[in-house]
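Open question from group meeting: does this chain pack into something compact, or does most of it stay loose? Before anyone orders reagents, we agreed to write out a predicted structure and look at it together. Recording both the input and the output here so the notebook holds the full record.
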Amino acid sequence: MEIFKNTNFDFLGKKAPFIGLSVLLIAAGLASLIAKGGPRYGIDFAGGTVTSVMFAKEPNEDQIRGALAAKVGGEISVQRVVGTREVIIGTELKSEGEMEQARKNMTAALYTAFGGNPETDFHAMGAAKVVDKLQDPLQKASAGVSTDGLQTLAKAVLDYRDTPPRSGLIASFDDLKNVPAMTQPVIDVMKKELTLAPFAIRSFELVGPKIGEELRWQAIQVTLLALAGMLVYIAFRFEWIYGIAAVIAVFHDTVITIGLFSLFNKEITLPVVAALLTLVGYSMNDTIVVFDRIRESLHGKVKASFSDIVNTSINQTLSRTVLTSGLTFLSVLALWIFGGQVLNGFSFALVVGIIVGTYSSIFIASPILIFWQNMLESRKKASGAQAPEPAKPSPAKPPARPAARREKSAK
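Structure tokens returned:
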């Protein structure tokens, strides 16, 4: 499908404003990064707490975020685990000494927002607390459970509660009838003495600064390895200058995107790194499409200057560029507008990256090829003008006639 046919836009003649825009964006982004001491890293890289919470019903992420913001403070990330009712909550943490207080604040915020009593919540209890809460009531109720038997029963009950698909959360105490040695009198006592909150905190972990630093370095390594692999591939498929031009264009896209994250004070998180790697592949693919058409034109021995061949190749791939980039842009734009807080950073990186990546293939990568070609031609002309003219050979003397023929002529 072609929406543009036989176009002849002078793209390369309009490259100056786009190159100027790129220089401006890169300068502004770098200035922002320097002023702020680097990118604003998320909890994945900067360190903090990571809490896994299972909910009885579909969780409302905005409600969770609002409840925690009131008591926990700082940056808060809330991520749904796809296909489950589990939520991963991340919070900032300056030091390990704050970990216990952060856990208490988060627990209190969740109970306030979703209900439940932390003192009697069965979902928050260990075996020792279950025994402590039930021992006297069971004796008063004459449930016929000894102290040793209660300890064994408590362990069995918690094993049942924590085994998938329950994963720390039961809907009713009646579900415990499936536990061996469980009796109805014990269940009745549990109903009176214990409660069930609509959520269960499955784990509470600390992500230290050292781990965050390792993740940052791994993210940088992955990006650099991706660029190096693409450089080798393009240099092998085309020529090395094509690979250099493509990598410079992709590096240009990445720097501008990270700079805009700094200007808009957005976090760099693991999903954002995934978006940047997606951007690297997308931008590189768009650039290769143009380069492939240039190569075809050169092999076809088109009688035109290299600059005209490049401009024609861009025009010939214009329909494909508009269709793929346009449709992808609309998709990620909808994701950015309607995707919510969790996907905001990921979708913002893709929105910016597609715009910048599309014009960099035309106005950054292609002019680099033309610059290189013009430089080679200038060198050839300069070397041809300075080379000494070859010496003209002296005229050859006519060969002497054979003696026999001279004698014959004389006769």
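Observations to bring back to the group:
Confidence is low (pLDDT under 50) at residues 385-411.
Residues 12 and 190 are 77 Å apart (CA to CA).
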